[in-house]
TrEMBL record:
<dbReference type="GO" id="GO:0005886">
    <property type="term" value="C:plasma membrane"/>
</dbReference>
<feature type="transmembrane region" description="Helical">
    <location>
        <begin position="562"/>
        <end position="582"/>
    </location>
</feature>
<feature type="transmembrane region" description="Helical">
    <location>
        <begin position="268"/>
        <end position="286"/>
    </location>
</feature>
<feature type="transmembrane region" description="Helical">
    <location>
        <begin position="219"/>
        <end position="238"/>
    </location>
</feature>
<feature type="transmembrane region" description="Helical">
    <location>
        <begin position="348"/>
        <end position="368"/>
    </location>
</feature>
<dbReference type="InterPro" id="IPR000731">
    <property type="entry name" value="SSD"/>
</dbReference>
<feature type="transmembrane region" description="Helical">
    <location>
        <begin position="609"/>
        <end position="629"/>
    </location>
</feature>
<keyword id="KW-0812">Transmembrane</keyword>
<feature type="transmembrane region" description="Helical">
    <location>
        <begin position="298"/>
        <end position="320"/>
    </location>
</feature>
<feature type="transmembrane region" description="Helical">
    <location>
        <begin position="523"/>
        <end position="542"/>
    </location>
</feature>
<feature type="transmembrane region" description="Helical">
    <location>
        <begin position="174"/>
        <end position="207"/>
    </location>
</feature>
<protein>
    <submittedName>
        <fullName>Putative membrane protein</fullName>
    </submittedName>
</protein>
<keyword id="KW-0472">Membrane</keyword>
<dbReference type="InterPro" id="IPR004869">
    <property type="entry name" value="MMPL_dom"/>
</dbReference>
<dbReference type="InterPro" id="IPR050545">
    <property type="entry name" value="Mycobact_MmpL"/>
</dbReference>
<keyword id="KW-1133">Transmembrane helix</keyword>
<comment type="similarity">
    <text>Belongs to the resistance-nodulation-cell division (RND) (TC 2.A.6) family. MmpL subfamily.</text>
</comment>
Length: 695
């Protein structure tokens, strides 16, 4: 199968290139339309009690969006500014789509702010909201913060596009410079970028197709785009490096491309499948956001893999004569081999000390607290964040936690509703309760919590309210209830997701190596590196240590999607490098080299390429850190750390230590499994070079 795919690209390179040009045109011509369809809502928790309660409220009628404005920076009684505010309010009331405008409310706390609330009709709300914001911003002599409703929704999409553009502008030149240093030639350096661009185009097209059927999150466009760039460069780097090595032995371009596709192509195939499998674990969760991230991520990985196995061989055939062959390298010495041999002299001590250090770094993850998020996740110059900050100073009640909504299937006149309200008011952590008629037979009891939504006290209050008796059906909804349901969903589905990923990884690595023990070793070492990365993310973004370095503050929680996405993507990338490394170790072992020497030589042979690939991925994922969304920064830091730890600590210390301890059992499997492996192994034969390849 692999030979057929790569063979066609090598035989008909121009047809393959034209096909990919059409994909690029479609992706960048049509697929970029996805930026206008992004949503900031995540974790809808479909089917949960909170989701059903929200649906019952929505069924009573469409909610009218609201735009909020704070005019501040001057005394509330300033006649000049007050006259401008009154004039602006009069003009806003005349804007089509505006239903109601509240009178300006002065700040009782500071006396230097005015609060204005604008209710919009549910039709054409975006145009009305934009017109309202433009008119209010014309007020001079004071600062004006306007956000909410469609303004905030649009801001999420705009911020996502800006973040992607900024990240690509900053990282692409760095990646190109690094590739030039690695390959020493513009053509060889440019090919990985071409594959990455093809992956990005495919990403836009895939997400645009997803947007026809479901919501696409701002996080999805950022994560999948950077993943497409990172993996595209990684896979192409491996292929181009092997092509240069093959040409050093046999200068015939077509023959070198064929052998490259057969050897490095097999590695790319298994590496891509392992990353896709790790992302497939997200599909197990019932949250539509995580499912869509899993499906989109899998599709993006497969696009990158397909580009590396088709577009790249075609380009190698067409441009290969302009790519310099690799220089001869030592395989029995060098820095990486010396480090590996040093570890092999004390493998048990190295393994224990390294594992203990990673466990220590991972300890903060035990205090992980999830949250839905608030405007502090946005950059300080965004309208939504400016409104949040202005409310915090002048109208702190405006930033109070959203109420826990007890949706009672009874009219507000029912005596049972009053009794339930009194019982809810007696729940610990509840400050007050308001009964709001929502329909003929629906009453919403808004219970306002004392603490923030992510606090244990508020979540316990949700559970307590759900346990209260009532003579009618009561569905508890609201943000706090949604968070409780989401955490319960994660706890329920996580074992299944982990089982799918771990079992699938074990099977794939067995098919790749024929070993029973190496796949288990890979899963355990990768878990350590992921735990350490998550520990640092919690330490920074939840607890606030060094948060200022990343332009944010400690939120007291992590956004509920960050740990899941970091774990899934980081696991896939970690196994990705495991495949790169094991492929060369296995080559040496099959060539008859003793186990310890095969490990050292394999680490030496892959040292430069894995270090280069990891460095490029670190650069690409660092683009997350310059974005505006704090959750994206958390994902970026987690992935940067996971890749760095895996490419250094795991590869240089844990891998040689554990493989030395295993010794001759590294590639051992029982007789029946050995026979099974011979039947399922993807072993592509290619014309042999005139003499053994350098690497």
């Amino acid at each position: 199968m692999l030979t057929s795919v790569t063979g066609f690209a090598i035989r008909r390179p121009r047809i393959v290139v034209v096909a990919w040009i059409l994909i690029l045109v479609a992706g960048f011509g049509i697929g970029v339309g996805v930026f206008g369809r992004l949503t900031g809502d995540i974790g809808s928790g479909s089917g949960s009690e909170s989701a059903r309660g929200a649906e019952r409220i929505e069924a009573t009628g469409p909610e009218q969006p609201t735009v909020t404005a704070v005019v501040h920076g001057m005394p509330a009684g300033d006649t000049a500014v007050r006259s401008q505010v009154d004039a602006a309010i009069a003009d806003v009331r005349a804007i089509p789509g505006v239903v109601e405008v509240s009178p300006p409310q002065p700040s009782a706390r500071t006396g230097e702010g005015l609060l204005v609330s604008v209710t919009l009709a549910s039709e054409d709300e975006s145009e009305a909201a934009t017109a309202v914001a433009e008119r209010l911003h014309e007020i001079s002599g004071a600062r004006v913060a306007v956000a909410g409703g469609p303004l905030t929704d649009e801001e999420y999409g705009t911020q996502a596009a800006q973040d992607v553009q900024r990240a690509e502008m900053l990282t692409t030149p760095v990646v190109l410079i690094l590739l030039l240093l690695i390959f020493g030639g513009l053509i060889a350096a440019g090919l990985p970028l071409l594959v990455a661009v093809a992956g990005v185009a495919g990403t836009f097209g895939i997400l645009y197709g997803f947007s026809e059927f479901t919501d696409v999150s701002v996080y999805a466009i950022q994560v999948t785009t950077m993943l497409a760039v990172g993996l595209g460069v990684d896979y192409a780097l491996l292929m181009v490096n092997r092509f240069r090595e093959e040409r050093a032995v046999d200068p015939d371009v077509r023959a070198a491309a064929t052998r490259t596709a057969a050897s490095a192509g097999r590695t790319v195939l298994f590496a891509g499948l392992t990353v896709a499998l790790a992302l497939a674990g997200l599909v197990v969760f019932s949250d539509p956001f995580l499912r869509s991230m899993g499906l989109a991520g899998m599709a993006v990985v497969l696009v990158d893999m397909l580009a590396a196995l088709t577009l790249l061989p075609a380009l190698l055939v067409l441009l290969g004569r302009r790519i310099k062959p690799a220089k001869a390298q030592r395989t029995d010495g060098g820095f990486f081999a010396r480090v590996a041999r040093g570890v092999q002299r004390r493998p048990l001590a190295t393994m224990l000390v390294t594992a203990a250090a990673l466990v220590f770094v991972a300890l903060p993850a035990l205090n992980l607290r999830l949250g839905l998020g608030d405007p502090r996740m946005l950059p300080t110059d965004s309208g939504t964040r400016q409104l949040y900050d202005a409310l915090a100073v002048h109208f702190p009640d405006g930033n109070a936690p959203d109420p826990i909504e007890a949706v009672a299937a009874a009219p507000s006149t029912d005596p049972g509703v009053a009794a339930l309200r009194d019982r809810i008011a007696g729940v610990d952590g509840i400050a007050r309760v308001e009964a709001v008629p929502a329909g003929a037979d629906i009453t919403v009891l808004n219970a306002y919590p004392v603490d923030i939504t992510a606090s244990d006290r508020t979540k316990d209050a949700v559970t307590a309210i759900r346990d209260l008796p009532a003579p009618f059906e009561v569905l508890v909804a609201g943000n706090a209830a949604h968070l409780v349901d989401y955490e319960a969903m994660l706890v329920e589905r996580a074992p299944w997701a982990i089982g799918v990923v771990v079992l699938g990884t074990l099977l794939l690595l067995f098919a790749f190596t024929g070993s029973l023990l190496l796949p288990i070793k890979a899963v355990l070492t990768n878990a350590l590196s992921i735990g350490a990365a998550l520990g640092v993310v919690v330490w920074v973004f939840q607890e606030g240590n060094l948060a200022g370095v990343f332009g944010t503050e400690g939120l007291g929680y992590l956004n509920l999607t960050v740990p899941v996405l970091v774990a899934a993507i980081a696991f896939g990338l970690s196994v990705d490098y495991e495949v790169f490394l094991l492929s060369r170790i296995r080559e040496r072992w099959l060539a008859g080299v003793p186990a310890d020497r095969a490990v050292a030589e394999g680490i030496q042979r892959t040292g430069r390429i894995i270090t280069s690939a990891a460095l490029l991925l670190v650069v690409v994922f660092s683009g997350f850190l310059v974005g505006g969304f704090v959750p994206i920064k958390g994902i970026g830091l987690g992935l940067v750390l996971a890749v760095a730890i895996d490419a250094t600590v795991v590869r240089m210390l844990l891998v040689p230590a554990t493989m030395t301890i295993l010794g001759r059992y590294n590639f051992w499997a029982p007789g029946p499994l050995r026979r099974l492996h011979k039947r399922i192994e993807v072993s592509e034969e290619a014309p042999a070079p005139k003499e053994p390849a350098l690497v």
